[in-house]
């Protein structure tokens, strides 16, 4: 894929709108290193923003309209009336834009005028790298910067989550939006999703790099199964609350869950709770391992996370399992796991830089042989959060 530069954006904007844009912006995607399906259970997550993401070129209008065009969903220019926003999602990519606009208006922010906006991204579609959060934060950043609003990055992240929950209808946690909004180059973000307290963890990978493995298996089940898993966690929590004064599953240690496992008549609910509690513990240990520059331990924690997601949470699927188990077999790999909601999308692997070419060739060949189509591979460069592109 050709690089998306400011000049490319300006030229593409000019083709669509027959005028020059006044500003260009970028918003990253994200990968979650560890702490999967934790952000709606009040625990710790360890994501980072990546250099793949969503770009926009914009120009102000003198009316209350947004004119949107996406190079990734090439169709007609979409028009949004800011004075008469839709109250129901249409199943289009523009729902995320409308959701952000509605959230801003509900918080008392009036949009003085509209914009022509050309959008182009290099995140693979349906890959679980948070293209939706990337778009939400892109739109929020554009409005904040163009209108000079005093909105913090944390507030923009919460605005994005609200758009996804209340308008789009995906019952997501806060991790994706926080990871995108607060991304910091060469750092992961350790976020307590119960309190929103966060800190940065330096990602000193030495002679290793993070390889994103895109299964190219569309995540058709991800949203429905995501909501199902969330409901199962809520049911598990209610069982435990009969004996324990807890508000979230992640308040439990593994030992405490073991003590109260007898409360579970349904072994399925216990498996869901076991993944959540142990994954939260793994995330804490992963933070310590990175702080101590112990990549071997960090890699083993990635492996354990995937196994738990496969066996206890059951969200991996054949394609992701194939990628990860094949990655485990390569001598240059010290850890691999699925990342994101699961049921397709992406996995990540911690791979020796000197062996990346061999890794990509071998895993790619075995994956295609087993699954019947190619996987895509990217080196994950850890990036900053949303910003305006300068000359």
From TrEMBL:
Q: Its catalytic activity?
A: alpha-D-galactose + ATP = alpha-D-galactose 1-phosphate + ADP + H(+)
Question: What Pfam families does the database record attribute to this sequence?
Answer: GalKase_gal_bdg, GHMP_kinases_C, GHMP_kinases_N
Where in the numbering of this chain does the Galactokinase N-terminal domain appear? Answer: 12-60
- The UniProt annotation places ATP binding at 70, 126-132
Q: Site feature Transition state stabilizer: at which residues? A: 30
- Write one Gene Ontology MF term: galactokinase activity
Family, similarity comment: Belongs to the GHMP kinase family. GalK subfamily.
Protein name per the record: Galactokinase
In its UniProt entry, the species of origin is given as Bombilactobacillus thymidiniphilus
